[in-house]
Design goal:
six-stranded antiparallel beta sheet, mainly beta
């Protein structure tokens, strides 16, 4: 049974044990940020509060696939207009309610990978969604279940980046899924860390994987560059501190990294997020630096779904976040970050070296906290 390294329900048949709060991977922060984009809530809202969801952008609309809502899990698929933010529920649903899945858009269809349902078991399934065509399961496409694991579309294949399979802290593997024949293969020991709870975005010729669990007790403040067929390495730039649940989006020259969870309280049955970020970090691959933006999210949130959308109205192109998880639970609003035309100029707030230390605080855990 997987010891959920992404901070979501952890189920075990073992006895009650002492819980631990994880606050790790602190870095030195210097000077002030240069990116000054505006972040705000859109006027329109989703029909339901939703967190731990996944989404894709087709070039015209955004599709949001299920997720956790107040008191349950959704199987709903929402279509969102990126210009107005207006959202409608489609007549199609996923095969079952699930959360903590990931999704990619190939230009023709979306693939929704893994996730968990009410039994909290990682789902070994890939679901195909075709607009105006419906939903189907790609039979036998997944070698094992995944949850809280990012995926990207390279233009040729889907890459599912990392996993957690055992109490040893997870696997460093990548799964390559080929939609043309519905087959998958496991690329073993590719990643430097398992990275469960990380996010990822495709940047033209490589994927950037942000944060995640380095192991069962440390949240990573690293960014990994993964090139299919060549391998993966850490970039030099560092996040201000380790995090999971920080969604990332690529605008053609920068990676925007939004929010995240920086502390967990773990008991024998689950790990509960207890501290969230409202910060927005911008990673510049050209200079291998991170910039802590002057803009922030409306509230601190764990974010698993984000898209970069090219828009004609308002302030132009933007990073759009459907829903999210706050300290009060899932939310129904959509956050928009308006992006200024970037020139990859050197940012002034940079994180050159990380100072790692373990701050493991034992806490008495006598009941299950949801």
């Amino acid at each position: 049974m997987c010891l959920q390294p992404d901070g979501e329900p952890m189920h075990s048949k073992g006895r009650w044990i002492t819980s631990t709060v994880v606050l790790l991977a602190i870095s030195m922060v210097l000077t002030s940020g240069t990116f000054g984009g505006l972040s705000e809530r859109m006027e329109e809202t989703l029909p339901d509060p939703v967190g731990m969801t996944c989404a894709v952008y087709t070039g015209d609309v955004i599709y949001v696939f299920g997720g956790a809502t107040k008191g349950g899990i959704l199987d709903t698929i929402y279509e969102v207009d990126p210009e107005s933010g207006r959202a409608t529920a489609l007549p199609y649903t996923r095969p079952s309610p699930r959360t903590l899945a990931s999704a990619v858009w190939t230009g023709r269809e979306a693939y929704i990978i893994g996730g968990i349902g009410y039994d909290a078991e990682p789902i070994a399934e890939i679901v195909k969604f075709v607009p105006d065509g419906g939903v189907s399961i790609v039979e036998g496409a997944m070698p094992y279940g995944t949850k809280g694991i990012p995926s990207v579309w390279s233009g040729e294949a889907v890459y599912i980046l990392g996993n957690c399979l055992s109490s040893d802290g997870g696997q460093h593997d990548v799964i390559r899924f080929d939609p043309t024949n519905g087959s998958s293969e496991i690329l073993e020991e590719v990643l430097p860390i398992p990275g469960a709870g990380s996010s990822a975005t495709w940047a033209g010729d490589c994927a950037y994987i942000v944060g995640g669990r380095q192991n069962l007790t440390i949240l990573s403040n690293r960014i990994i560059r993964y090139v299919p067929g060549e391998g993966a390495d850490f970039v030099g730039a560092l996040l201000p501190q380790g995090r999971i649940g920080a969604a990332s989006a690529w605008d053609g020259e920068r990676v925007f990294i939004l929010g995240g969870t920086i502390a967990l309280e773990c008991g024998p049955l689950e790990c509960v997020p207890i501290d969230y970020l409202d910060e927005i970090v911008v990673f510049y691959p050209g200079t291998d630096t991170c910039d802590l933006s002057r803009a922030t999210l409306p509230e601190p949130m764990d974010i698993r779904a984000v898209v970069y959308a090219e828009r004609e109205s308002g302030r132009g192109n933007a990073v759009i976040v459907p829903g999210g998880l706050t300290a009060e639970g899932p939310v129904n609003w959509m956050t928009v970050l308006y992006t200024e035309p970037g020139d990859a100029s050197e940012p002034s707030k940079q994180f050159y070296q990380s100072t790692w230390f373990n701050a493991l605080i034992p806490v008495s855990y006598t009941h299950l906290t949801l």
